[in-house]
Amino acid sequence: MHDRRTALATGLFGALMLLGAVVIVADAMRLPGLGSAMGPAVMPVLVAVLLGGVGLGLLVQSGLRLRTAEAVPRSGAAWRVAALVGALLAFAVLLPLLGYVATATGLFVAAALLLGAPRRWVLLAYGWALATAVFFVFDRLIGLSLPSGPWGF
Q1: What angle do CA 61, 66, 72 make, to 5 degrees?
Q2: TM spans, by residue (predicted)?
């Protein structure tokens, strides 16, 4: 027995993956140097083929599961999805003002709490450590500038 909504969501995601694969191939075909064996379009086309294969697999799986799927009553988790979207929007709005480390820490803590993480008292430390490590790697080591905020990090 399968949940009908899960099967439909799987099919929708598979269709979006197939659409993404088509868009990637269309963009890759506009790249210069298509005649060479290892031109710039090789990797995007390879990614598109893999993406399309997974998308097709999800569509087939969804179709098979829909045959035996049953409607399941709503679980009330929609508010969590809305809260996660709100946390992502807050991250986007506050990023230029507070910087990457502060906003990424907030996003980590919010997402972990909404998804039911245990040991709530250490979430802030984990979030700050992860955001600081990502900031250090991307901003300092690789050289990709991340918003530093009023504190310089």
Answers
A1: 120
A2: 7-29, 41-60, 81-114, 120-138
